[in-house]
Every structure is written in structure tokens, then in C-alpha cells.
Design a protein that fits this description.
Elements: H1 25-35, E1 47-51, H2 65-77, E2 81-85, H3 114-118, H4 122-125
Parallel strand pairs: 1-2
Helix pairs in contact: 1-2
Amino acid sequence: MTATAPAAPAKVYFTNLRTHARESQLDKLKRLIRRAGIEQIDFENKFVAIKIHFGELGNLSFLRPNYARAVADVVKELGGKPFLTDCNTLYVAAAKTRSSTSTPPTRTALPRTPQAARSSSPTAQGYRRGARPGRGR
């Protein structure tokens, strides 16, 4: 096993996204990623994944698509073929996150029928939020 030199600390770039009449936020973002060294990456005729969060129902905490567009424009200028990607999760019901608690859950079961409502079986009654077999709820 060979010893490796410790990695240099990563550079972190921060900018205040407040702008003035002479420069838009998108122009400022493009300037920031160029200063961070995006031009040193060989994008020529290569597919380039731009990972973003597409958001979920009731969530307001995501980057607007115009920021991804600004990054994609720079990648195109450098010869790349950008595309957007995300690692989504399929929820059976509404996610139990702070943002989704204000949104009513999506109904995932079939509506109750009069015949099923008379049955004592929890399965026949249809699933209700919080219903557990044998708990009498």
C-alpha cells in the first residue's frame, strides 16, 4: 500500500447574489463559475450532467430553473452537451417533510364502497391514515 499526499483543502466560493442595474444574477452566476475554473474542464463533445433538485409537491426550497440554464449555457459555450438530472424518490403518499405537512396527503387507496364499510376487516374497509389492523381505529 502506498502513501498518498494529503489532499489540498477544497476552495469554496461564496458570493452575495444581490445585484445592481449593471449586472443580473444570472450574469453574476456565470462569472462565479468561470472564476471557479469551469473553463479548465474539457467538455468538448461530452455529455454533462447538471444535477438539480426538481422539487416536490409543496416544496418551495429549490433552485429556480433559470440558474441551471445559466450553467448549461456556459457548458454549451465550452463545447459540452448539458442535460438536467435529479435522483427523485417515488412516494406512495405525501412525504413527511415540513413542507408537505401543509399539503393534504394524496389518496393512495381506492374509495370505500358501502359493502366494504360494513365489513369488520381493516383491509376490506380500505386503508385510512393512521389505521392499523387490530388497533380498533
